[in-house]
Amino acid sequence: MARYWQPNYGNIFANVGPLLGRVGIRPWLELDFKERFPESNLWVFSHWESFSQKVKAELSKIGINSIESEAELLHNFLQLFSICPVKGGKKGKAWRPSRPEILQSFLLHVQDMSAFPKELDRITKTALKYGSTVQSFPLLVGRTLTELRSFYVVIDDSPISVESVLRALEVTFKSYFALHCEYPLESRRQWTVLQKTLFQLDIPSDKVNPIANLPEVKRLIKILKY
């Protein structure tokens, strides 16, 4: 996981977090985010209904009308974005990730937890190939996206149990800031849109962030912002 430590509250986690073990990481992630961005701390729950209705309206324009769960909505959210090359990582290789590759970095779904190690290995090999790193991501387990039975946030290859799809999304998002990590290379556009709409979080670096200033990203932010 690529980390970008800065001299702020997050360093408390850097020093103490490893002593807690993986189970103890989650409270520190959330505490760090709450201290730094108190106004954005609970936006995902208070504004999910408004956000989801706007996403459904956009999906209906491209013929996607049957959305039965939060997981399905997030899964189809990616359909609002084009497929385009990305470039980053230590090797700086240009890469055109497929929709499945974008999805696995944004919201990984497996039918059974026994399939997770194989999927993680595939994700890791893809990241190594392009000089990137495996960042935090939500993991959903269940037969289908409407029949989920467990939810996790995967940090440094370790699944951390959470209570719901939205909690998995929320804790993953907060982990990027608490650990000073970049968004996953493949799904950087998607996380940037969520940051500025569902989480209502603007940060100074957005002004010079090329992803935040892409026409496609700016258009979706304008449409989906609360």
Structure description:
The chain is α+β, with helices and mostly antiparallel strands and 226 residues long. It has one domain (10-224). It contains ten helices and six strands, in the order αααααββαβαβββααα. It has helices at residues 10-20, 25-36, 43-46, 48-60, 70-77, 99-106, 116-129, 165-178, 188-196, 215-224, and strands at residues 86-88, 93-95, 108-110, 137-142, 148-155, 158-162. The strands form two sheets. A four-stranded mixed sheet has the order 3-4-5-6. Strands 1-2 form a two-stranded antiparallel sheet. A hairpin with a 5-residue loop joins strand 4 (137-142) and strand 5. It is globular and about 40 Å long.
Compact overview of the structure:
With 226 residues, this protein is an alpha+beta fold. Helices cover 46% and strands 12% of the residues. A hairpin with a 5-residue loop joins strand 4 (137-142) and strand 5.
